[in-house]
Amino acid sequence: MSNNNNDTNDEVARATAAAAKDPATETIFDKLLSGAWPSDVVYEDDWAFCFRDVNPQAPVHILCIPKVRDGLTQLVHAREDQKDLLGHLLYVAKEVARKECPEGYRIVINDGKDGAQSVYHLHLHILGGRQLQWPPG
Ligand code: TR5
After folding, report:
1. 76 belongs to a structural domain
2. Where is the active site (predicted)?
3. What is the ipTM metric for this complex?
4. Which of 12, 34, 112, 122 is an S-S bond match for 72, by CB 3.0 to 4.6 Å?
5. How far, in Å, CA of 16 to CA of 52, rounded?
6. Does residue 16 fall inside a structural domain?
7. Which domain holds residue 79?
8. pLDDT digits (tens, 9 = 90+) for 61-93
């Protein structure tokens, strides 16, 4: 687990580089979804896929993504007809968090460059398993 200043700077650098790329290109999450790359899957159903983050920022760090990206590179691009999907993802994240983090948790969406988003496939971060601080950096 890591959360020092160097990691924070690295994450911002990755986010800045990712934001400069064409958001239509496939992301690493497509490889995890297809099984081409291994992932530690926590939950999946027809719409949602939840797996442990490879670089955890807390004892519990799980990502929850839509199985089909369909333009959802980032939250800001969500369409009205995707409201049910967004609600489903939030509900699934809550259910996963309730089981994994009985003392509480945080659900985060990083959006765009200033949000330090580095992978352009919508994802909810579920963080817990320790006392989280506020405000975030
Ligand atoms: O910075 P944002 O909000 O876009 O979050 C992207 C998250 O994807 C980060 O927390 C990364 O640690 C995580 N990530 C990146 C890779 C990866 C992953 N989680 C699981 N497995 C991964 N693989 C195999 N490869 C990655 N590059």
Report:
1. yes
2. 123
3. 0.99
4. 122
5. 23
6. yes
7. 5-128
8. 999 999 999 999 999 999 999 999 999 999 999
